[in-house]
């Protein structure tokens, strides 16, 4: 069960609203420390600039991966928004969780990482977390807000 501070959820929702009409995307790093790790939201440009899909800017993503490795952080989650549909991984979202995209019979690109979706379909945003597993299986994980 992912434990996420309300401020982190608020940051992802704010990013989703600010990037309208397009989907927003980013990464959440877990910074080790005493007790639970601190979660840091890193906004990433949606290179697709689309309300229907997201594509993380590869250069920005590479820099965040380098930072994560250098600082000993872990990749806690990849997040993105759905502007007019529910907070549930689309078939495209599932395909893109694998490398090469669509190779669902192998482990996902980032095993153990949560996929967080922010839906702006209704006035009150919905935020849900999932694990995408080998075979393209989707498992919802209840978020514990701390």
Describe this structure in words.
- With 146 residues, the protein is of the alpha/beta class.
- The protein has a single domain, classed as 3-Layer(aba) Sandwich (Cytidine Deaminase, domain 2), CATH 3.40.140.
- It is built from three helices and eight strands, in the order E-H-E-E-H-E-H-E-E-E-E.
- It has helices at 6-18, 58-71, 91-96, and strands at 3-4, 25-31, 38-44, 74-82, 114-119, 126-133, 137-141, 144-145.
- The strands form two sheets. A six-stranded mixed β-sheet has the order 3-2-4-5-6-7. The protein has a two-stranded parallel sheet with strand order 1-8.
- Strand 2 and strand 3 form a beta hairpin.
- The chain starts with a strand and ends with a strand.
What are the salient characteristics of this protein?
single chain; 146 residues; alpha/beta; Cytidine Deaminase, domain 2; 8 strands; globular
* Cα-atom radius of gyration: 14 Å
Query: Which spans have pLDDT < 50 for at least 5 consecutive residues?
Result: none
Largest sheet: 6 strands, mixed
How many runs of DSSP E, i.e. beta strands? 8
The percent range for strand residues is 25-35%
Shape type: globular
CATH architecture: 3-Layer(aba) Sandwich
Q: Examine the coordinates and then state which fold CATH places here, giving the name of the CATH topology.
A: Cytidine Deaminase, domain 2
Order of helices and strands: EHEEHEHEEEE
Name of the CATH homologous superfamily = Cytidine Deaminase, domain 2
Number of domains: 1
Structural class: alpha/beta
Strand order of the largest sheet: 3-2-4-5-6-7
Q: Indicate the mean pLDDT.
A: 94
Q: Give the end-to-end Cα distance, rounded to a whole number of Å.
A: 12 Å
Output the number of helix runs.
3
Helical proportion? 10-25%
CATH first level: which class? Alpha Beta
